């Protein structure tokens, strides 16, 4: 009986211990909940600024991912597995949209792209500074480590070095530290080696060994780096002195170096503009249709040969809101057409989300389609549906042609409407910084201007593709970028834009059929 009494006492103690454990666990869970609540209230008060700044967007996704792992761990320690299963099911049904590892990776890659394109200093980014944008919360050593780690998984050792070094520098100032110095040094050492910095890789690995002599890789890697240096003819006595300049090459992204250089310079608005060329440009009222006598289009010529124009105030805020409302549920990762198969597929050189809208979807879409015909004088029956594109953090589209070249015979085969003769690009929003449209061959930059539309011809009058129209969408640095694309095809344009046998025949204005140029004459008739 005494043993039973002892057993009862033990059971009571076990229960009390369990209650104490659960109380502590629930208190930790309450703290996490309060963190979520505080962060959510702050995000709501800041509005879209929380997600339109690339640093803030990265921090938001990273913190959500990290905190959710904490929540899962705390809940799994109790009988909450049933609840967790319900949460998982809801997430699969898209009832709860929570960031994934892919989202975090995308935000990181976008941040790195912005860093390269706009030549942003690593320390400035980590301090929350992006050009003239409002300062954001600085990154911790662990945040920098995560950026470097994601770069490493992509075999992007250039950015791994930049961000692991930044993480290392920040770790010195943190108490308590937010990251493991050993992990940082290991990634940094191997990345230095991959970029051709053997002596520096050895130096960092020795730091790692001094920090943790029991590290599983440090001692072996030191020997390996020493052997490689000997193979290169460097004496052991010189392994730790006379360090050459740091080598850190950007990874190859598939673009020609010269085009990449001009593309990024155009995005930064660093390419000088010819005063002589701009002095020839002008604005005019397009009134070459009876309807336009009362409501003419304002047209700004951006350049000649080839003609690129900007239509001013051709889409209203109300129309933009309606289009966004219709498009948002349909947005999917943007695709490009495979030049060999004609099939649509995703590509790393185009990062955005898009949706396609028909004229029958809403009267606003139909109205815009009709307006495009008045703007361009081109028949819309053979044009593609209106494509709505949303560019998020680092969203971009590398230099490309809108038309199909001779080696892409299947590009628009399924449409049966010929090649893309022209492009109309509506700017539905205006990013705070970045997001320009640049023509790499023409050395021309057009910054997004809300409610306006850019227009150009992709083909010569002979039907041949105009290689000078190669263009790109620069990554959005801060803000949101929504655009609407309308690609107009050759069929039905035989009388709207008649063929010309000479490449020298160029439009001087939109719908040029030989009437006087509207520089000094009213644009009242296409004939």
Automatic annotation (TrEMBL):
Record carries keyword RNA-binding: no
UniProt subcellular location: Endoplasmic reticulum lumen
Coiled-coil stretches noted in the UniProt entry, renumbered to this chain: 19-46
Gene3D superfamilies: 6.10.140.1460, q2cbj1_9rhob like domain, Tetratricopeptide repeat domain
Pfam families the record matches: 2OG-FeII_Oxy_3 (PF13640), P4Ha_N (PF08336), TPR_P4H (PF23558)
Entry GO MF terms: iron ion binding; L-ascorbic acid binding; procollagen-proline 4-dioxygenase activity
Superkingdom in the source lineage: Eukaryota
The Fe2OG dioxygenase domain, residue ranges: 382-490
Cofactor: L-ascorbate
Keywords carried by this UniProt record: Coiled coil, Dioxygenase, Endoplasmic reticulum, Glycoprotein, Iron, Metal-binding, Oxidoreductase, TPR repeat, Vitamin C
Gene Ontology CC annotation, any one: endoplasmic reticulum lumen
Start and stop residues of the TPR repeats: 182-215
Alphabetical list of InterPro entries matching this protein: Oxoglu/Fe-dep_dioxygenase_dom, P4H_N, P4HA-like, Pro_4_hyd_alph, Pro_4_hyd_alph_FE2OG_OXY, TPR-like_helical_dom_sf, TPR_P4H, TPR_rpt
EC number: 1.14.11.2
Primary subcellular site in the record, as a coarse category: endoplasmic reticulum
SUPFAM superfamilies the record matches: TPR-like
The protein's role, per its UniProt record: Catalyzes the post-translational formation of 4-hydroxyproline in -Xaa-Pro-Gly- sequences in collagens and other proteins.
Family assignment from sequence similarity: Belongs to the P4HA family.
Protein name: procollagen-proline 4-dioxygenase
Source organism per UniProt: Toxocara canis (Canine roundworm)
Lineage of the species this protein comes from: Eukaryota, Metazoa, Ecdysozoa, Nematoda, Chromadorea
